[in-house]
Design goal:
Layout: E1 12-16, E2 19-23, H1 25-36
Antiparallel strand pairs: 1-2
Length: about 55
């Protein structure tokens, strides 16, 4: 799978509602930095169903 933003190989892929999108590590990091700088993450843990092994 190719990165959504460039023509490098996608190293990370996400799928939702049958649509699969991949990104390379560089673009994944850029997107994570952008999200971290926004207020979008505030309170999101409550909305996510995460199974964390301890």
């Amino acid at each position: 799978m190719q990165c959504h933003y460039c023509d490098r190989e996608a190293e990370i892929a996400v799928e939702k509602d049958g649509v699969k999108v991949g990104v390379c590590k560089t673009h994944f990091r850029e997107q994570m930095e952008e999200i971290a700088d926004s207020d979008w993450l505030d309170g999101i843990e409550e909305d996510l169903d995460i199974d964390r092994a301890e």
